[in-house]
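User: Earlier you gave me the apo prediction for this protein. Now I'd like the version with adenosine-5'-triphosphate bound, so I can compare the two side by side. Same sequence as before, with the ligand SMILES added.
Assistant: Got it. Here's the input I'm using:
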Amino acid sequence: MKIALTGKGGVGKTTISACLSQYFAGEGFNVLAVDADPDANLGLALGMSEEMIKSIIPISEMKDLVEERTNAEKGSFGTLFKMNPEVADIPDRYCQEHNGVKLLTMGTVDAGGSGCVCPEHVLLKMLMSHLVLYQKDVVVMDMEAGIEHLGRGTAQAVDAFIVVVEPGVRSIQTYNKVKTLAMDIGVKQVYVIGNKIRNNGDIAFLEEKIGKENIIGFLNYRDAISESDRNNQSPYDDPAMQADIATMGKKIQEIVQAKKK
Ligand SMILES: Nc1ncnc2c1ncn2[C@@H]1O[C@H](COP(=O)(O)OP(=O)(O)OP(=O)(O)O)[C@@H](O)[C@H]1O
Ligand SMILES: [Mg+2]
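And here is the structure of the complex with adenosine-5'-triphosphate:
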């Protein structure tokens, strides 16, 4: 099962990705959590220690690896390099494990506009494509807003896109954009998790704007969640969060399995 979480900035993508990863790991699945956001912080939300976080080098910043796999030499900008580098062993070799969740941090490339063709970018693109074919029980991707960086083939292999929204017009606008983009590249499963809910009015608002049938579930605004961020703890340590996430995790599993039949 492969799910990718996206949405407007700050809506709770990383929080929910971390919690779903821990939920599925607790259910006995082999989970690979992928931090595909250039501003990576999924490790923190997974409750990794500071030492562990410090030791994480994003794939795109592993210069030797990038060179080795693409045959590009240091500082040799503009020279030829392999467009189809070998990546199959990267997820298992370069991930960090914590609480039963394997974390892979992709990193970022200073692309300077789209269409960047540099060795780091080529490696990340291949890695992303590989991940959707990768045989792990569950892959959870925490992405930056938008899904432009997924190609047609790779996006089709993601079982469900989950857009996290808040009760507000701006994050719904992002959802609508993601949905259009997803349709364009042939992804049909796009669902919503409504986060930071404060009252029934918030739920009614989201159900009206998005349609009940597209919503996986709601997560209340809770001080314990923002406090976990302040205290550098995993939001999943909170039993109320575990209960909410379990309900959503089950639903995601049901939906994905039903569509796969
Ligand atoms: N349900 C909630 N109740 C209270 N605070 C929340 C809730 N969900 C998320 N937060 C807080 O909102 C902030 C943003 O959450 P998070 O980092 O998960 O969002 P994001 O969508 O990944 O952001 P970014 O776009 O920067 O990657 C964090 O401080 C987090 O603790
Ligand atoms: Mg995030």
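For your comparison, keep in mind: Residues 13-14, 37, 41, 142 surround magnesium ion (ligand 2) (CB under 6 Å).
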